[in-house]
């Protein structure tokens, strides 16, 4: 084919048919341009297909991560809600001087409220890797992309103050070391371990009195309650992000036939 066009070009020049040669030359240039455009279009089509496949894989992986995050955060919310409720109840009992609450219940409020700490553990491997690779633009849905960015920022700069919460919990452990083991015996037996140590009624009464008379414990408990209540609100906010993102991921994958 190339030899044919070369011979044609030489014959036109030899026969001094310049106008025909010029027309031929323009046609040859157009043919080359059309060929380049077709090649570029084919390359673009292949690249788009490749990006679509990669986006689909990312969306599926994100869905797996966020489903796991939902499970993890839901469990944390359940435990954190109990911490806040028990801290509030213990503070109410101590500050109002309520003597009707049995020692076992006080132990439950202490160990599963005042001395408990729960931290969220979302699964963020896929999105972190996406940010690290600089390929976030593969996610075409702008609403989904925005929510993912907000969610990531919330986890990074949100309220989840682990240090302050663990410090307050450690301080309450220290302050309750004299009475908590006595009052928490039923908690140990039910939730942690069994023990043959039997406390006398006198020891239990003294432990209750030690708890009720420890104003410093009550003061730290008030700070603990305020912090844990704020942490609960923060965790609920993160949970809402996870739910909204999962809805968008489901919609995107349905549109792709998955």
Automatic annotation (TrEMBL):
Transmembrane helix among keywords: yes
TM regions (residue ranges): 21-40
Keywords per UniProt: Membrane, Transmembrane, Transmembrane helix
InterPro entries per the UniProt record, alphabetical: DUF6090 (IPR045749)
Pfam families: DUF6090
Domain of life: Bacteria
Protein name (database record): DUF6090 family protein
